[in-house]
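Lab notebook, bench 4. We co-purified these components, and the gel suggests they stay together. Before we commit to crystallization screens, I want a quick structural picture of the whole thing.
Request: model the full complex, all chains together.
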Amino acid sequence: MIAIDAYAYNNKLKSVHPAEKSLFAMLTMGMCLTSSTMLTPFIVLVLMAGGIVFKAGIPTRVLIRLLAIPMSFLLISVLTIAISVSTDSSGFWLAQTVKGFTIGIHYPDLLTAANLFLRSLGAVSCLYFLALTTPITELIAVLHTLKVPFIITELMVLIYRFIFVFLETATMIRRAQYSRSGYVSLKSSFRSMSRLFSALLGKVFVKYQDLYNTMAARGYNGEIRVLSQKRPISLRNYFFIAGIEIPLIILNLLWR
Amino acid sequence: MSELILEAVNLEYSYPDGTSALRKVNLQVQKGERLAILGSNGAGKSTLFMHFNGIYRPNSGFIKYQGQDISYKKQDLIELRKKVGIVFQDPDSQLFSASVWQDISFGPLNLGLSEEVVIERVKQAMLDTETTDLEDKPTHLLSYGQKKRVSIAGVLAMEPEVIIFDEPTAGMDPRHSHEFMQILEKLSLEGKTIILSTHDVDLAYSWSDRLAIMYRGEIIAHGLPGELLTRPEIVKRADLTIPWLIETHTELVKKGWLPSSAPLPKTKTDLFQNIPAKSGQQSA
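Here is the predicted assembly.
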């Protein structure tokens, strides 16, 4: 999560308007999820991986590591769809019969599983594209222009900021605990961990009060308003998006 | 010159848990002056500052801004906070936004300024604090000194009349604290009133026009820095030390290297100028 965040602020597509990137990622994800062919998810996956690596300049190993995260869930669910166990050994495409039980794969199930696998991975790659190229603060600004209620965007701003404040505090407390042998045994680990959490909880309230005071000092009156950095709107990017999405739509329609 | 801008009259405040934080505090701040508030940790400096722009409400006594008691109505408080800005000690509690640019724009936008003016002010504040190259960085990737400068920019962008700095140089490296002092110098030249709290006696002595010493919620002395900090009984009572400039000067006078008529040096340069060259080594 921290790595994704660091890349979002430091990639070659940083200065592209966030709305353009969001539109691209969301539309492509829509194409990927609505397709009835396996070809579209495959194209989407290649497209997004290429965009992340070549356009945004994110190292390939980072992308592979990130794609490996959903892989474990994905493989488990895909395997349960593909493999069947039955007492009836007919209709299997690939099977092994042991003591009257047949474990194997039906061909249509295999197709469904492969389709599901590619489709999920394609959709995830769209999300990664967005997450790796667009800072949360700019995404929030896009949500703002989409008229998402203030209360939600403000909460997002504060939660996002405070994830890092608390992470830092927790890291510091943990380091201090380690330096006093806080985690030498299982027992002391549990004790140290519980103290870490109770210390953090206490700090939440202190930080909350501090934040309120500092915001009040700068004229806060119940609504957080900030200016976002203006990003140039590029017509070329919209043409590019159209140039990618239209063929995908056609592909999806033709394969119905 | 001696026009009063802020005034605390018989201020008393205790925290909800009963700890008494301020006792009968009287303090006058003159327009355009540099006022340093010296005190050890827990002396009540920050609590006093919270009263100056109406975040804390005193149990008794009052705050006056330009001769008028401040009102705690919402609209009046916004007016007051336009005039009196505070840069807090911990930048992490002040920076609520993840983006430097957004955070600096928060204050001026609350003043109801137009977008163009806000952009202008944000840019100027970033120039003044040398944070322009940080504008795209998220606040959580900044170093402590950078966060501190961004939080200063966030207050400068509101262009207040009075700027209060709570322990501004704590945690800054020598270069940045030197640069910070230059920002202060510039603000003073622009006619801003600056109040600064610190427990750095050397800083307070060299920088301030006037000094107030706090101890356990009381102002135990106020006056000219050269008068207060030469009195060991005050300095000791407040858990502080005598500035090294004064100590060195006194020692030089005592040992006969300087005449007792020599003026008290305000800066290091002053002190060095006072010290005569050894006879026979005179040059230029």
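Chain B touches chain A through 43 residues (CB under 8 Å). Worth comparing against the SEC data before the next meeting. The radius of gyration of chain B is 21 Å.
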